[in-house]
Amino acid sequence: MAVLRSSSRCSVSVIGAVLLVVLVLNGANLCNGGKTSTFVRKVEKTVDMPLNSDVFRVPPGYNAPQQVHITQGDHVGKGVIVSWVTQDEPGSSEVLYWSENSEHKKTAKGKVYRYEFYNYTSGYIHHCTLKKLTYNTKYYYEVGIGHTVQQFWFITPPEVGPDVPYTFGLIGDLGQSFDSNLTLTHYEHNPLKGQTVLFVGDLSYADQYPNHDNARWDSWGRFVERSVAYQPWIWTAGNHEIDFAPELGENEPFKPFTHRYLVPYRASNSTAPFWYSIKRASVYIIVLSSYSAYGKYTPQYKWLEQELPKVNRTETPWLIVMMHSPWYNSYNYHYMEGETMRVMFEPWFVKYKVDVVFSGHVHAYERSERVSNVAYNIINGLCAPIQDQSAPVYITIGDGGNLEGLATNMTEPQPKYSAYREASFGHAVFDIKNRTHAYYSWHRNQDGYAVEADSMWFFNRIWHPVDDSTSA
Ligand SMILES: *[C@@H]1O[C@H](CO)[C@@H](O)[C@H](O)[C@H]1NC(C)=O
Ligand SMILES: *[C@@H]1O[C@H](CO)[C@@H](O)[C@H](O)[C@H]1NC(C)=O
Ligand SMILES: *[C@@H]1O[C@H](CO)[C@@H](O)[C@H](O)[C@H]1NC(C)=O
Ligand SMILES: *[C@@H]1O[C@H](CO)[C@@H](O)[C@H](O)[C@H]1NC(C)=O
Ligand SMILES: *[C@@H]1O[C@H](CO)[C@@H](O)[C@H](O)[C@H]1NC(C)=O
Ligand SMILES: *[C@@H]1O[C@H](CO)[C@@H](O)[C@H](O)[C@H]1NC(C)=O
Ligand SMILES: [Fe+2]
Questions:
Q1: Coil vs helix vs strand at 6
Q2: What is the CA radius of gyration of the chain?
Q3: Which ligand is nearest to the CA of 290?
Q4: 58-61: long-range contacts at Cβ-Cβ below 8 A with a sequence spacing of 24 or more?
Q5: 3-state secondary structure of 346
Q6: Are the CB atoms for 373 and 383 separated by under 8 Å?
Q7: Per-residue pLDDT tens digits for 331-358
Q8: Which site among 4, 133, 357, 415 is 20 to 30 Å from 253 CA-CA?
Q9: Centroid of ligand 6 to alpha carbon of 437 (angstroms)
Q10: Rounded CA separation 361/334 (Å)
């Protein structure tokens, strides 16, 4: 089985056999890493919930709105994009909304879209942006106007500022299996009460079905509605969002994803919905795309180059980056897939002192120490990760529980940069207390219970740049 203890010692000859000789010459001690959890998950197959499951139920009523979801709709948190699908006819794209302490219902006008994918035609997909909301306020909203009206609510974030506590949930690679349902349930019941989900990509896994059966995009939308209709999920594009299928005559990448999940990319002057930024409470969040060009001169490269200097850590002390494919991953899955982007962007992450990077893709959990690997210049041989207190912590949280199952095979020995790794499903919470401290915890799905299995106090890289490493 794949559950292995980290070796307590490893000789130079073993490293030499496993790693490039340059790394040894470089004096890097890459073995004897952190902890490889010995927790053994009950190994039953990860299977999708059947379409007639309770979580996929279509709401009753003529043209009833379904798959309701919200995300941040502007750069600072005063806007919300409300999206939903109607099946029988377009119906109204209006949203009625009002704050808790107001009687007066306001109306916002949205737009309706459809798309086709092979022989599938989507329902009527509505998107409507609510603007100029008041911070820190509970709003009710209604969709399905004129037919079957459904009411939901959300709470706007506090005004952007340095000392605003805020709690983010972290979910990745969720899919729609029975395990996905456990992960979402545990997130909802977590007493730390996440206020917004940072979703690191790979939503529905509809592309695993024949012809990328887009009905599985619809079922996924109904499955997660119970959370995402009430709190925003911040979207990152994963490889399962690409849906590039020339064999089906589908040559437009990201078609289902971009029609269904809008993001406020224009508000951060991005030119495509795959990379963008938002401010929320005391955090500046940068979303990057592992599956869009990021080489020099590309739109994403140019955008990020201009974006990082704009982050004002007096206003938003915390700087979080999200991307799908991890840069520091010691599992034998997707190994080094993140390497090309790391080469392009890592020096900037160190320069601008990113606090933490969240990724998915690998269906397991891993947390790194603060490391960087930016010294290499082709001829100097300096190509090993080193401890670096200006570098982010890298967290892989692709463990939502999709039908592809767990990634259990790890590289051995555990690299030194890897602080903790475990092949279990789960979710995490990043709980910002103030400008200096955030409590991070990862919660595995353990026989139906959520168990905190890994945690760490994050010290902000600008306001409290004290060593917060957890390995001895
Ligand atoms: C799409 O085509 C597949 C076979 O290629 C078929 O099984 C399926 O029922 C079709 N779906 C629709 C909506 O026509
Ligand atoms: C999914 O989880 C919810 C909440 O725990 C539960 O009510 C529901 O029955 C579950 N559905 C399936 C198909 O497991
Ligand atoms: C976007 O560009 C405009 C025009 O240059 C500028 O005024 C605005 O501040 C920029 N927005 C962000 C979030 O960078
Ligand atoms: C950074 O933000 C602080 C607090 O909002 C503000 O006082 C300061 O002027 C900003 N600095 C820059 C360079 O915009
Ligand atoms: C784990 O991955 C390695 C490298 O890809 C491979 O050689 C090995 O056979 C795998 N082990 C198992 C148990 O699958
Ligand atoms: C910030 O939060 C940490 C953890 O809760 C606490 O120990 C520290 O005193 C707080 N700092 C300030 C200035 O309140
Ligand atoms: Fe992925």
A1: coil
A2: 22
A3: 7
A4: 58/87, 58/222, 59/148, 59/150, 60/148, 61/144, 61/147, 61/148
A5: helix
A6: yes
A7: 999 999 999 999 999 999 999 999 999 9
A8: 357
A9: 6
A10: 8
